[in-house]
Every structure is written in structure tokens, then in C-alpha cells.
């Protein structure tokens, strides 16, 4: 775990997966890393409509696709 040069953020990295996260406090950085690693392993929960709205996403316009667009393949 390292602190940014500005001293405002803690940066954490999981050595096994290479997943990196951050937080303003050391404990927040570790909690965020736990969540990020869980997401890396496919764990977690589907976002609710309220979660999507908080992120500025209209749930009715949010559409999942079967495959990636050609430029991402």
C-alpha cells in the first residue's frame, strides 16, 4: 500500500490479481480493494435501478448486449 505524492489518497494493489484501488483513508482503500477484487472474480451484485440512477444512468435505456462491439474484439 502506498500513499500518493500529494498525500491525499491511499493506493492499494492486490499482488495476486494486479487489481488496484484507492481511498482517502487507509481503511477505505482496503475496503475498496476488497470490493474490486470480488468484482474481478465475478462476485458481487447486480446494480439496482436506484444504483444506476445515482450514477446518472437511465435504467430503461440501459441495454445489455450479447457481444462486444467490433472495435473491442
Characterise the protein shown here.
The chain has 73 residues and is α+β, with helices and mostly antiparallel strands. It has one domain. The chain contains two helices and three strands. The protein has a three-stranded antiparallel beta sheet, with helices on one face.
What tags apply to this protein structure?
2 helices, extended, three-stranded antiparallel sheet, Type II toxin-antitoxin system HicB family antitoxin, 73 residues, 14% strand, 3 strands, alpha+beta, DUF7387
Describe the global form.
extended
Strand ordering within the main sheet: 1-2-3
How many separate domains make up the residues? Answer: 1
Number of strands: 3
Number of helices in the DSSP assignment? 2
Task: Provide the β-strand percentage band.
Answer: 5-15%
Average pLDDT across residues? 83
SSE run: EEEHH
Radius of gyration: 16 Å
Topology:
Blueprint: E1 2-3, E2 10-13, E3 20-23, H1 26-40, H2 49-54
Précis, in short:
The chain is an alpha+beta fold and 73 residues long.
